[in-house]
Structures are given as C-alpha cells and as structure tokens.
Write a structure and sequence with these properties.
Blueprint (H helix, E strand, L loop, with lengths): L1 E10 L2 E7 L11 E4 L6 H19 L27 E9 L4 E9 L2 H6 L6 H4 L2 H6 L1 E6 L5 H4 L3 E5 L40 H12 L2 E6 L14 E6 L2 H14 L5 E2 L11 E3 L2 E3 L7 H21 L11 E5 L8 H13 L4 E6 L3 H11 L4 E4 L4 E2 L7 H32 L5 E5 L2 H13 L4 H4 L2 E3 L10 H11 L7 E6 L13 E2 L4 E5 L20 H4 L10 E2 L15 E3 L10 E2 L7 E3 L12 H9 L14 H14 L3
Parallel strand pairs: 3-14, 3-15, 7-13, 13-14, 17-18, 17-19, 19-21
Antiparallel strand pairs: 1-2, 1-4, 4-5, 5-6, 8-9, 10-11, 11-12, 15-16, 20-21, 22-24, 23-25
Helix pairs in contact: 6-8, 7-8, 7-9, 8-9, 9-10, 12-16
Length: about 650
C-alpha cells in the first residue's frame, strides 16, 4: 500500500497543492522529495499523511494503537492553520493499492455556513455533518473495504525530524524505554509508525537476527597435500543468514570502504560488536550519529517487514510500503547525504520514499542515483522542479562553494609559489613567524634600525599572507617539518610570548638541519612576565595612536572586567575581558569596541592589520614611531646566525 494522491488547499502556508504519486516503468513507486525553506509546510504535509495512517489504524485496531493515547487525534485541529485570508482549508489523501483506496478527508472552516454558501465545500457528508456545523471541523477516513490483512501487507514508517538514538555513553537512568514491537493481536496494534528512538527500537530485533546461524557441512577433500587428520572429514561451518547478509551490505554501503561484520551478541545479549576496515567497536551504538541514523532507518524497514512476514530468505526488493523521512539529511556528512542515503534507498525499490531536505548534496545524490525516476516538489507552491539549478538552495550553495573554492585555489597557488621561492634559496636566513603582521614589523625594524646591515641582506621571510591557518600551533608543526630537510639555509621560527605553552626558558633552541626556534624578546618598556605579541614591541602610547577615522588599538587592561567599560566611561566592549591586560581587542568578531554615548554603531577598535598598514604608509601620527623595542629580537636573530655558522 502506498500513497496515490494528495490535495491540500489553504492549509498553513500551502495555498493549493495537488500531487499524484508516480510509478516507474517497472511499476515501482517513484521517490518524492519535498524542498523549500523553513516554514514552507513540509512538516505539516507529513503530519497530515501520518494523521491519515493513524486514523486508518484506529479503525483496524479498535482496542488501541501506540501512536496516540485513547481517542486522541495524532494532529490537533486548529483554525489558526487555515491560511490567512481564507475561510476554509481542506486536506484530501488517497492511500492504498490500484484496487483498494483509503480516502481521508480533513476540513476546517472559520465560518461553516459561509463555506457552504460559497460552495467552498460540496461534499454532502460534510455539509450535513452536525459536528462540522457546530465546530467547523470535519475528519473522516473511509477504508473502502481495506482489511487489517491488507494493511499489514506493507511497511509504514515515519522518521520525524527529532528522531534520535540512545548512544553507548547515555545514562540509562535518564532513559524511558519505549514498548518493543511484536506481532499485532486481539485488536491491539503493537507496532508504531512513528520512530522517535530509531536505534533502540531495532536493537533487540538485531540481537535476535544475529543469534541465528546456518551451519553447513564442509567436506574436506581426500588429498595427500592435506594433513591426514583432516582428509575426508566433515566440519560444520557457520554461514550468514539472508538477513545477516542484508545488514552487512547496508553497513558496507554506509561506510563505503569495504566489508563489515557484526559480531554475535555477547553472552548477556546486550551488545553487538562491529568490525571493518575503518571501525572496530564493541557495540553499534558507538557509531557516529550519521552512521547510526542511516543504519537504524534501513534496519527499521527490514524489521517492520520481518514482523509480519517472518521470512529468513527475504529479498530487500520484495519489501513494499511507504517510508517518510523528515529532514532526511539530519546529522549526515556530505558523503553520507550525497552517496550513502540514495544507495540505501535503491536497495528497496518497492518502498515509496517521501523525504524532506535542505541539503543540495542529498538532492544532487538522489538525482544521480535515480535520474528521472524521482520527483522534487517545491513548497509551499507545490511546483515540480525538473531543473535542480532553479532550486534556490542549490544555486546558493553553488555560488558559495564556487567562491570559496576560487579563494582556496588562489591561496594554495600563492603559498605554493612562496614555497618554491623559499626552496630555491641557498645560504639564506629564512624566518618563519606566527602571524601575518609579524613579517611586516620585522621588515620595518630592519629598515629603521641601524647596526644590522651585516644580516639584513641575507634574511628572507616566509610570507604567510595567504595562509588560512596561522598561530603558534601551526608554527610548531613547521619547526618539526623543517628538521626533516637537508638544505643549507638557516631556518628560524619566531614565537610570540602570549601563550605560556610556547614560551621557552632558553634564549633559543636548536633542532636538526640548521633549524632554530626562539621567543620574541621582551623590550625594555615591558616586564619579563608580560604576555606579549609583536605589536607590544611598540609602546602603549604608540599603540593607542588614533587614525583619521577616530579608530585605534584597544588593550584589554583599559576595560573593567565586569562592566567591560573603559575608565573614562567612553567605550564599551561586549567581548569577555581575559586575564591578560595586554590582549589586543582587534575589532574582529565580538572584540568590537563602541562609544557609550549616542547611537553611534561604529566599531572603533582598529585591527592589527589596519594598524601596521598605517605605519607602513607613514600616515599622520604613525610616522614617528621608535622601533628600539625590536632591537633585542634582532640581536637574538644575529646570535642564532652566528651559532649556526660556527664550525
């Protein structure tokens, strides 16, 4: 049984939607993918389909169903869901086979009499319904001869957007275990269409599946090459059941890197180990959220079929039914969305999949896997999308990725060119720094300070202007990498003094291959205990120079830690003030500084890069700085060069 037609008018954001579900040439249902922005009605559409299925179950299992309590409806009716400006909303769904159709109708009206007089409703059952006349609500599910046996002949599952699983680390005392599924009996339905706890709901069934085994008798040939004790003997050999083979295939598709085995349950039957090329864990719940999500969805489909058919030799291609997955890309890595989920869906050709997603990667993967045998329905207008490039989220993602890719290519090319330049040098002194501004300061210091003419011409800087990641951690990796070479250059890594982890007790440290590292030296106007970066080789007075736009560098020590307001009550910073009073609030992210008075939204915190650019340009106020604070650092560089050239 699958969905045949759905029509929605004036419901939530949906104005007028009418869709007939398609089938391919082999008679298999074509997947439907709902796309659109948040609030376009995807989840509301799902709620109506599940409401229809629950109402069908209520009639077939009069003694109770698990989806709702007592006589409650799954979906609460409310006039607030009638589209703004409309008086009447309606939902019509047909569900079943080509021979038997269940017809579900759900109508709401703010003014029932007006709905009838305006001929917004023409169904006599609704017009004559006393309940509709009094309340404006009418709901009816007509089974039209569909029996419980018909209903149980196929799978129905709904994976809502808030589906979850219980991971291995979860405290069981906080967990309210759901009722386990079993064959329906005595008018009670003990299976639940709605799967909120997808892994926990299949775990006991998985253990039962893996406790089964097939033993085959293996005849050893009577060959002289085989030891006499084994020749001609018969040994029992374990073989996977068909179900076990299917579940292994599912794991292999998800991981995408080879074959995986699920170990037999431990003696207490509480865990299922997993082994394969890239994962070894004691229980499947230790898989990632995305892996668990996909595995549990596929296993849930097989389990639901197994409950009513109990066929150990089942083929996945035999399973029929309807599976709805809201936010199908939830927790999925790009590869899982693009590759794994579409391939898993193809394992079940007779399942009618209805998905919602925002992921351009899932959409692209589905198009690749299904070609034209899939429909993309844009909500709230209900338009079928044939060209995915017209879907705004696809084009936006493309533009973002194209832009970022182009930027990355430019960065890589710039760094490759810089690497080749450095590699071609001989008998030079190459200095590597943490930050992009460090190079600019050291170049200025060598230009402005006298006494370094003997080393100035030999020094080259590794320009990291286009590097994406910089900092002390990256520089530490560079120091380790440089020691593996065999070139004649002297390599010096200069670390700032703002991170105690990378402050060295010695003046400098020597590694292999003429590689050295040292800390920026503390100038006379600073204390040895100060945590400083290269900018602090200038005085505070120089750092606080105001540019033509009234912006300047701010230090954390200027702000009260609790109020984050300067002592003169002029400026405020929303950034948390740390323990280092010399931390530079560089105007990035939340380190912005604003004036307290007026409605001025200008960020007055000057960035480090803008500051040094003012110095390089000799802008007014920035053209007379003393660079004497850099002399101790240049002296250490000279000492390292002398150490490296001692024979």
């Amino acid at each position: 049984m699958v969905l045949r037609n759905i029509s929605i008018r004036n419901y939530g954001p949906i104005d007028d939607l009418s869709y007939t579900f398609r089938f391919d040439k082999a008679g298999n249902p074509v997947p439907l993918v709902l796309i659109g922005k948040n609030g376009c009605g995807k989840t509301l559409l799902f709620s109506n389909i599940i409401d229809m299925m629950v109402e069908t179950k209520r009639q077939l299992y009069p003694n109770g169903v698990l989806e709702v309590v007592g006589t409650n409806y799954y979906k609460i009716g409310s006039h607030s869901y009638i589209k703004v400006g409309a008086n009447t909303s309606s939902v019509k769904i047909e569900y079943g086979t080509h021979l038997k159709h269940i017809k579900h109708v759900d109508v709401m009206s703010r003014n029932p009499a007006q709905s009838v007089s305006n001929k917004e409703i023409e169904d006599s059952r609704i017009i004559n319904s006393q309940q509709f006349k009094e309340s404006g609500f009418y709901k009816n599910t007509d089974l039209q001869g569909v029996t419980r046996s018909d209903f149980e002949s196929s799978v129905r599952l709904f994976f809502p957007f808030d589906r979850y699983y219980k991971p291995m680390w979860y405290n069981a005392d906080n967990y309210n275990k759901t009722t386990l599924s079993a064959p329906n009996s005595l008018g009670h339905s003990t299976t639940n269409i709605i799967k909120n706890d997808i892994l926990e709901n299949v775990k006991d069934w998985l253990r039962a599946v893996y406790l089964q085994s097939h033993l085959l008798n293996l005849q050893i040939p009577n060959d002289e090459k085989i030891p006499a004790d084994f020749r001609g003997k018969v040994f029992p050999v374990r073989q996977d059941t068909k179900l076990q083979s299917h579940l292994k295939a599912i794991l292999s598709i998800i991981k995408g890197d080879g074959q995986y085995d699920v170990a037999n349950p431990t003696r207490n039957h509480k865990t299922l180990g997993l082994n394969g090329p890239s994962i070894h864990c004691t229980d499947i719940s230790q898989m990632s959220a995305g892996e668990t999500n996909l595995y549990a969805i596929a296993a849930s489909i097989i389990k639901e079929w197994d409950i009513f058919h109990s066929n150990d030799d089942m083929e996945l291609s035999e399973i029929t039914g309807c599976v709805l997955i809201d936010e199908a890309d939830a927790n999925l890595h790009i590869d899982f969305a693009y590759r794994a989920l579409p391939k898993l869906m193809k394992l079940f050709p007779k399942i009618q999949f209805i998905l919602s997603t925002h992921s351009p990667f899932l959409l692209a993967g589905l198009r690749k896997e299904y070609d034209e045998n899939i429909d993309f329905l844009s909500l709230p207008d209900g338009t079928l999308i044939h060209d995915l490039n017209s879907f705004s989220e696809i084009t936006t993602a493309y533009e973002v990725f194209s832009s970022e890719t182009e930027n990355l290519i430019q960065q890589v090319e710039s760094l490759r060119a810089e690497y080749q330049r450095i590699k071609s040098l001989n008998n030079k002194v190459i200095i590597y720094t943490e930050g992009k501004t460090d190079v600019k300061y050291l170049k200025l210091a060598l230009q402005k300070l006298q006494g370094y003419e003997d080393i100035c011409s030999r020094i080259e800087f590794y320009d990291i202007e286009h590097a994406k990641n910089t900092g002390d951690g990256e520089l530490a990796k560079i120091f380790d990498y440089l020691q593996k070479g065999n070139d004649t250059n002297i390599k010096i890594c200069m670390f700032d003094r703002d991170n105690p982890t990378y402050i060295f007790s010695d003046a400098f440290l020597k590694g292999n291959n003429r590689v050295y590292k040292f800390n920026l030296r503390t100038p006379q106007h600073r204390s040895e205990t100060d945590l400083i970066s290269v900018e602090h080789c200038l005085t505070d007075e120089e750092l606080k120079t105001v540019d033509a736009n009234g912006r300047r560098v701010f230090l954390a020590g200027e702000f009260n830690k609790s109020t984050r307001i300067t002592a003169d009550q002029q400026y405020v910073c929303h950034h948390r003030i740390g323990s280092n009073p010399l931390e530079i609030l560089d105007g990035s992210n939340d380190k912005k500084v604003y004036k307290i008075s007026g409605n001025d939204e200008t960020n007055y915190a000057l960035t480090k890069d803008d500051f040094i650019q003012h110095v390089i340009n000799n802008d007014p106020g920035f053209d007379s700085f003393s660079f004497e604070g850099f002399r101790p650092t240049l002296d250490i560089i000279r000492a390292i060069i002398q150490d490296a050239e001692r024979v």
